[in-house]
Amino acid sequence: MDAIAYIKKYVIEEKQEEAIKRLEAGEPVQYIVGNVDFYGSLITVNPSVLIPRFETEGLVEQTIKKIKEHFLLPIDILDLCTGSGCIAITLKKKLNANVVASDISAEALKVAKMNVMQNKVDVTLVQSDLFEHIQNQFDIIIANPPYIAYEEEIDDIVKNNEPPLALYADHNGLYFYEEILKQISDYLKEKYLIAFEIGYQQAEPIQRLAYQYLEDIKVTIGKDLQGKDRYLWIEHI
Fold it and tell me: How do residues 83-110 score in pLDDT, each as one tens digit?
């Protein structure tokens, strides 16, 4: 569905002209309409959160498959850097799981709370700088952290509209992966799966970080629909 058709579907008729002007001015259609379909769920979005993308649907789909292959349900899942809550909500809907979702941004968590309520799921939301306020251990830890390097060129529609806090990271985009992997051991059960969405050039350095901080693991790289490295799983199963 193109952007104009999306507006005509979700925006009441008397506001469609204004919505199209906002679109022509460079505002993402998802923010104009206020929602996006993610893996069959309607997710509210605004400029406080990253717009969920097809690539992240791929991460969720392939992670669900791995979980069903290797784990007995119910399981405990932590979704770091949850943003709109789209990953946590989908995993809760699709799996018998206890799900905790965290983000450093209070504004993002307001959006996530709306989405949890609208989708009628039981997800625990925690404001936390990575593991700062996280308790317990988990079978699955999944994250789509900020991974764009500050000097990297990105589309104007993204740069000018989406929250920088959810986009950019130091150390050539690797900062949050290293911080997560440094701290993660205390929050993992003996058998675990870590799932990351990654930048298409980051698979090799993140793999090195995984082997630096964790022992007896298997690392798997997955590609998105464009054939680019986009997912990384770390298994101890």
Answer: 999 999 999 999 999 999 999 999 999 9
